[in-house]
Amino acid sequence: MIKKEMIAMLLAGGQGSRLGVLTAKVAKPAVSFGGKYRIIDFPLSNCINSGVDTVGVLTQYQPLRLNTHIGIGIPWDLDRNVGGVTVLPPYEKSSNTEWYTGTANAIYQNIEYMDSFNPDYVLILSGDHIYKMDYEVMLDYHKSKGAEVTLAAMPVPLEEAKRFGILITDDDRKITEFEEKPENPRSNLASMGIYIFNWKTLKEALIANATQPSLDFGKHVIPYCHDKGSPCYAFEYNGYWKDVGTLHSYWEANMELIDIVPEFNLYEEYWKIYTKNDKLPPQYISANSEVEKCIIGEGAQIYGKVYNSVIGCGVTIGEGTVVSNSIIMNDAEIGFGGNIEKAIIAENAHIGDNVTIGAGEEAENDTAPHIYNHGLVCVGEKSTIPSGVTIGKNVVISGDTTEADYPDHSLASGKSLIKAGDRV
Description:
Blueprint: E1 6-11, E2 32-33, E3 37-38, H1 41-49, E4 54-58, H2 64-70, E5 84-88, H3 103-108, H4 111-115, E6 121-126, E7 129-131, H5 135-144, E8 149-155, E9 165-169, E10 175-180, E11 189-198, H6 199-208, H7 217-227, E12 232-236, E13 241-243, H8 247-256, E14 284-285, E15 290-292, E16 295-296, E17 301-302, E18 305-307, E19 310-311, E20 316-317, E21 322-324, E22 327-328, E23 333-334, E24 339-341, E25 343-345, E26 350-351, E27 356-357, E28 377-379, E29 384-385, E30 390-391, E31 395-398, E32 410-411, E33 416-418
């Protein structure tokens, strides 16, 4: 019988609705990040760098691009005869087929997959955070404490603690209480959504709670283990960890990659980030262009001026166009003579000539101010913007737009232009 010491289950089914049009056609873990990567590359690379060679990836929302990206796991050296990477969508059963309804329900539906490896430990991961962590160190800690459940946790500012699941521990880091998003937090140790369970403990907890609606780790499984007396410990992590769940945090995390001394370094020799590489030519930077403090993906052609930006693979930026403080994703095309400031332009978007983006003063977005804010302009995948228009701040544009959509050739700050069939 196959025997693996620890296998990983990576939850990658999230819609990421706070990323607005960026996740209208793609699951959040498949969103581009850092020029050539996708968000899921980070936890997958952590697995292989930590010696975890068996990973189940649980997909649900818009899984096509994620499935294509992961393939059989070659970029992460996860194309194994035994183990490797397996994509686990919700599947047809003979009776009552169901979607994954909660984080732990997704794991519960794949008990047979996990059982087939007869593991001692199961590592539960989220597919939408940017960080580097050696899970082997966490496993050693789990064993040394005689724990049945270990939660990775990091200190957060007390005023932010109410957004997280908070852990209260004794001096030995044993968890005495959990508080899920407390109004008045009594600790600032926040759960990171990274768990190691003894397989026997996890399996029993999943089966015992199987009938809970929206079965969830933070609400059901971990409290159940704790109440039953299973030793639960907090593993404190103090490195870089970013939940890129909002457009602003996503933009910020990309901008942090191009700091002179980046807090999160993509260039470390001993902890590589792996991704699927398309066979692309090198980037081309023309004689009249200027590039300063940027990441530029393979196959990009730069004829304009680009400052403090993250440019994906296969992007074209026309002559005389100035791009600053922006994220331009793979295969987007930007015409000549434009000015783009603090924008996120998604894959395969087409921006005409002489287009100004990010003009004027800020105004609150008229449809989803909780998503489109901080002065950012967001242009959805495969969207088209015609030549000669001026666009304000806190704007979202999605779909094939034409001159008729821009009265007086402009779109004021705070406006949303979502063409039929697209969603905010």
